[in-house]
Specification:
The chain is an all-alpha fold and 120 residues long. It is built from 5 helices and no strands. It is elongated, with a radius of gyration of 18 Å.
């Protein structure tokens, strides 16, 4: 499945039943591989659409979604559960898109800007 979310949209439990976000989150925190696949199937399309609305092309949006998933999985231990899983993931993808939109400034450019500020 690619970052556009093509594939099965539903999230199902081990026995094939639908599971809720609370159970999915618990499984994610346990590190269950099937839960990661379920989460991606459930939310990939939503995250891609959000990223595509903020970025200028498909490749940027796809990269933002991949980066957001990596950030989300790394941040699972610190997620407090105050937000719905979808809201938490959307916040991560939006912040990832904002970071991609920021101009990349080299250390040399930052040093020159700093010198110009202090000289004037």
């Amino acid at each position: 499945m690619d970052a556009t979310g093509r594939g099965r949209p539903e999230a199902v439990g081990d026995a094939g039943q639908d599971i809720g976000d609370a159970q999915l989150l618990a499984q994610l925190r346990q590190g269950r591989a099937a839960a990661f696949e379920r989460a991606m199937r459930r939310y990939n399309r939503l995250l891609y659409r959000a990223a595509r609305s903020l970025l200028t092309d498909d490749a940027q949006a796809e990269q933002a979604v991949v980066d957001a998933w990596l950030r989300a999985f790394a941040a699972l231990p610190t997620m407090r559960g105050e937000l719905a899983l979808s809201t938490w993931l959307l916040r991560i993808v939006i912040e990832t898109c904002r970071q991609q939109q920021r101009p990349v400034r080299s250390p040399l450019l930052r040093q020159a800007e700093s010198a110009r500020t202090h000289a004037g």
